[in-house]
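In response to reviewer comment 3 from the previous cycle, which asked for concrete evidence that the modeling workflow produces usable outputs, we include below a single protein chain processed end to end. The sequence was submitted unchanged, and the resulting structure tokens are shown without manual editing.
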Amino acid sequence: MTKKNQSIAIVGVGPRGLAALEALFLALQDATVSEIPKVLLFEASPHFGAGQIWSPAQVATNLSNIHERHLANGLAGRPEIRIDDLFIPAFASYREWINYPENHDPQEKDHFPSRSKIGAYLNARFESIAHVLADAGLAECLQKAIVLVETTATGCMLTDAEGIEYEVAETVLTIGHQPVYDSDQLQSWEAHAREQKLMLYKDPYPVGALETEAITPDTVIAMRGFGLSMVDQMRALTLGFGGSFTEIPDTDRFQYSASEQEPRTLIAFSLDGLPPAPKPKNAKIDAWFEPSAESMLHFKTQIEEANQHPDQIKDASFLIEALGEMTASVYLDLKTKARPTTLDRHELAKLTESLLRQPKKLQHELLLSHDIPAIEALNALLDMACGREKISLDYCLGQVWRYALGVLYHEFTHFDFKDAAMIDLVKYIEASKRYSYGPPIASVQQLIALVEAGVLHLDFVDNPQIEEVPSGWKLRKNGKSVTADVMVNSVVDPPQLLKVSSPLIQNLIADKKVSPVNYKLGLHTLEDGRIISKAGNTHQPIALLGRLAKGSVIGVDDLIECFGKPANKWAAGVLSRMRD
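The workflow returned the following structure tokens.
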């Protein structure tokens, strides 16, 4: 069965697919084309525009790590679109949609909305354009998973999971998180769980799956990971079972009251035991870390110089040096708010460079020690985020990273560095996320409250020994041991192309339609998103915008940048080829 004569396919209609659709029709209103293309929109989940990650149907305890202040300032609306007789109404910015106050109190604690709330915005924004296009015969929404994309003499042939084929002129893959092959550890745990009839949750999401009657107060749950996903799961296993947190006045601390239904024992563990660092409490404290205009301009100039000479860039040294200088300036500007130092700007910059290169080994009085217990680190990080404790250099660096990433994501979306340099660059960006992608302070307040209530245990948090036993998984550390009868994976795998197990990507690799940027990253694309094949072909009608372009594109995990330059450049390229 074949459906023919379609023009453009957008595969994966989460935020990035929505952005691609909008960018295409925004570009069309200023273009001269013989015919407005029809768009086929493929999304496996029922919530177009939001996708699975931002699903409006997920549990309300699953919070975004993007505060509404940032969304209000960054997530612009869609202007109205007029193409001949076609009229697509404007859609509100996030600020307008939530009625965010123009005069926001900078001392008010930042609010972090649920992922479902943001998903509702994205879904409504999609429906507002999709209905108009569908009524005009210019769009078709198909809740289907595409498993194969092949090039033809006139474009692409797509095949869905049911074997139905769709012929189009061009395809853009705007797919987000993709399933990956299980690690050896997860494979062993799955076999063990199956043999002993134990509960293993391999996928961190949806966290609502944990809210089940199979988990009782006597259940002992081990959570693999100590980051954002673990915090989401922690809330599902406490708030989701009827527990509650109460803020203790004038302390920036919470108290936890457990319910009778929830599991009484949660155990967190990871490879390094380092907790996530919360973002600053409010706009006033956040502003402490904003680089000066002069410092930011110097940073941009340093990155631009590297980008203009890609063949000379061997590693991420250019970024490390630029970050070191910018962080040193911010730290000195903190004055009495920071830990005291006699180092000058140059010496601080060099210390910051050493911190970036050896974060786990470097010991210094300006740094938060990695040797202190995790609960002490959580308390110290919370106090810094609330302005109650002198800022350490590593916390300062983490917050400066957020501003630096804003520049990289917005100004330098595409790099042409060689593979070794890109791998090094992405390595440092990923390593920054413990700070730069930190959770709201409420998440850390909740973690601390759970430890103090005796629910969350951190005795095994730093790389424990794990033994499979008939009753579950036995964790050992520093002479202590505990056996968990439920194991929860809290680790979201990075976008490594050759580890992705989805049929769509596997078929592209087998057909040599893609060229990986080394096995550690994603795939090579041109600046307009078109995929470069293994043979070096840059003219194939398949583009990719999203996580698996990591290695060519920076900022693939940023929601606001979904609506940025990559989608616009892809749309401009499509129209250019339509006119040829």
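Residues 7 and 522 are 27 Å apart (CA to CA). We consider this sufficient to address the reviewer's concern, and the full set will be provided in the supplementary archive.
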